[in-house]
Amino acid sequence: MKKFQVKKPDIKGSFHKLKNIKKEDVKVYWMARKERRERILEERRNSAFARKMRPVYQFMNRISLLLHALLACMINFAIEAISRHSAMEAWKYMTGTPLVFLYNAFMIFITFSVVYLVKRRMFVRIIISVLWLALGVANGYMLMKRVTPFNAQDFKVAKDGITLINNYFNGVELVGLAVGIGAVVIWVISMWRRGGQYNGKLRRLWALAGVGVWFVVYGIVSDLAVEKRVVSTYFGNIAFAYEDYGLPYCFMASVFNTGITEPNDYNEKTITEISGNREITKSETGRAKDELPNIIFIQLESYFDVAEAEFFTTSEDASPNLHAMYENYSSGYFKVPSIGAGTANTEFEVLTGMNLRYFGPGEYPYKTVLKNQVSESAATALGALGYGTHALHNNGGNFYSRARVFNNVGFDSYTSKEFMNILQTTENGWAKDDILIQHIIEAMDTTKGQDFVFGISVQGHGDYPEEKMIENPKILVEGIADEGTKNKWEYYVNQVYEMDQFAGNLVKALEERGEPTVVVFYGDHLPTMGLKAEDLKGRYLYNTNYVIWDNIGLPKEDRNIPSYQIMADVLDRLDIHSGTVFNYHQQRRKTKNYLADLEILQYDLLYGEQYVYDGKPPITEGHMAMGVRDVTLKNVIPHLGEGYSLYGENFTKSSKVFVNGERQKSTFLNNTRIDLPETELGEEDEIVVVQMGSSNTVFRKSDAYLYQNGELTVEEGTGTDKKKSWVEQLDEEEKR
Q: For residue 14, what pLDDT is reported?
């Protein structure tokens, strides 16, 4: 048997050749490669197979438009089958709504028109096909992990999403994804090298004109499709929209259709009439200053009253505290803009009073207009009356660009996960909500007067596991036959129970505080459980629940209310009339053209000339500080071997230590101690502790401390300026 021998690589010889290579040698090498490539292509063109196929290729070129149409239909079917996780569902979609299917296929067909501009037509066809199929694969994979389809906004939160990647993907899936992407890239590169070229004469001007004509035709067809209601420009629920209108249309709508389109009758005269000669911009209240209560809004992640479900029962009441509040305080259904996802959009409607319906389909204003532009909100409205304004969230500060958005809508402070020592998490890794109570109280303690607090919970977040993860659940679910589905609901119901305990504990803490206070609890959307209208007593998927607790004797007034009206409604009950949009709701809610005029007003405020302010906008720049507590250092103790222990106050897992501007390897032990195992300190070294968010965002810096004779000396006033916007300070530092 012949032995297999492996030739030893001549590394030394190769290095010697590389070291002595000349410019002329490189030119000769690449010329030889080019000649060899041309020779191979010529041999292929003149081969027997090529001669036999030449008439076939010529015929295919003549009917290429028809073949593109067929390819577009095949790709459209493939991406829908992948997205729906079923070829049968894709077939039902195609045969059940053929006009929608053909409209989406026509969109794909249009993209193939660019191949006539180049010689490497086959390669360009492959690239276009891969991009469309990649879109389908991304959407299908996303829908395995969450209820929201893949859309343009995912690109805008990609950096923030990386920090949560372990909540959605395991190691095997990540490796498979990387291998798959690598394989596709290698294949595409090989097709660039091996793919043939068009041998006919290129008529680029005619081809370019043809591309233009096809896009004009597409515009006409799109207008007809909207007019005949084949597709819609409004997505009440983006997941349902993808099912009804197809992935290509919905994804492209999320890319190009953002913001509010300028209304036809938008002008200064119209705004003056809508605003009652700008009367709605006033800030006033019928209450004396010392009678104004604290106002707290708590957005409960994925919360709804599970007693509303008709297909299962629970072993005991999952929401005893909130149910008691429903009985004694104002409550009702809470209409939200989305189902199963869209937390930031419910926030947007509550905080601004604006209706999301007028924005682009699937748009998150947090990631578009509010990320870089200031706007009125409940924070500015109540801040104008002397309230301290605080936002809190037990998740990452950068997610959905909240840190920048909250600065741009006028909050004084934002306490995110980076400023919390979270010790308790759910079995899925989300922070439990009880941590919010101490930080709400701390935020209120920073001001002498009344406070507005906007708290966002995260405990109820999906994905909800099909396997049993809670060993001894407090609440048992009965009436669901499928074990996996039962486990999902049992996990969710027990999170609801703990969220209810958080609500009860918060009310107790506020009662002990003894200040006049109003608290609004509400759910941001239904959980990602595939619920149908017939599963719920209310028979409506856009409803969650709300309740307004108070200790000032507000009369109980139960009614159902949409999220964009809740702030105006609560302020009206308190005889507070502040904030342009909130005043508009209070004055115009039951009048003619209420919604049409609201759209015009929203356009003026966010995209127009701001005629309503008459040159005097209530907010021109943010001033928000991240967190409400400074990190302070007390001393630093050397280890017996290498490294130090740093002692101080208000450390968290997000505290990062810098010595002379260089980040140190550190181990967080508790809120008073961080170990620096590899640090070497010298005389006059400068130590700074930074509260750092995702993407290495500096949220807040401690004062600098000098290491002198084994002691720490503070350089006061060198940390983050709490009277100045953290965003402004970050931008200034990045420019240096």
A: 64
Q: Which of 357, 334, 333 is nearest to 345 (CA)?
A: 357
At residue 697, φ and ψ (nearest 5 deg) are: -80, 125
Continuous segment of H or E residues that includes residue 65: helix 64-84
Residue 130 CA to residue 132 CA, distance in Å, equals 6
Beta bridge partners of 393: 456
d(CA 300, CA 433): 9
Q: How far apart are CA 81 and CA 91, in angstroms?
A: 8
Q: What share of the chain is helix, strand, coil (3-state, %, to 5)?
A: 50, 15, 35
613, 640, 674 - which closes a domain: 613
Do 459 and 546 sit in the same domain of this protein? yes
- Looking at per-residue pLDDT, the higher value among 593 and 167 belongs to 593
Contact 259, 359 (CB under 8 A): yes
The tens digit of pLDDT for each residue in 632-665 reads 999 999 999 899 999 999 999 999 999 999 999 9
**Distance between CA atoms of 359 and 372, rounded to whole angstroms?**
17
Residue 261 tokens, joined? 């389109």
Statement to judge: residues 229 and 337 lie in one domain: no
Chain segment 312-340, per-residue pLDDT in tens: 999 999 999 999 999 999 999 999 998 88
For residues 394 and 631, give the distance between their C-alpha atoms in angstroms, rounded to a whole number.
19
Give the residue among 666, 699, 345 at the shortest CA–CA distance from 525.
Answer: 345
Q: Which residues contact 531 (CB under 8 A, 6 or more apart)?
A: 339, 340, 541
Please tell me the pTM assigned to this model: 0.83
Does 337 lie in the same domain as 219? no
Mean pLDDT score of the chain: 89
Closest CA to 304 of 496, 465, 530, 506: 496
* β-bridge pairing 685-693 and 704-708: antiparallel
Spatial separation of the C-alpha atoms in residues 161 and 415, rounded to whole Å: 19
The predicted-structure confidence for 155-200, as pLDDT tens digits, reads as follows 655 555 555 455 555 566 666 767 777 777 776 666 666 656 666 6
Residue 622 counted as domain residue: no
Average pLDDT of 104-133? Answer: 86
Distance from C-alpha of 496 to C-alpha of 131, rounded to nearest angstrom: 41
Residues 694 and 727 in one domain: yes
In a 3-state reduction of DSSP, which class is residue 457? coil
Q: Is residue 2 part of a domain?
A: no
Assess whether 204 and 159 both reside in one domain.
yes
724 burial level (CB within 10 Å; 0-12, 13-18, 19+) = middle
- Please state, in angstroms and rounded to a whole number, the distance separating the CA atoms of residues 278 and 673: 55
Residue 139, number of CB atoms within 10 A of its CB? 23
Q: Which residue range is the domain that position 729 belongs to?
A: 630-735
Half-sphere exposure of residue 258: CA atoms within 13 angstroms, side-chain side: 17
Query: Is 657 found in the same domain as 606?
Result: no
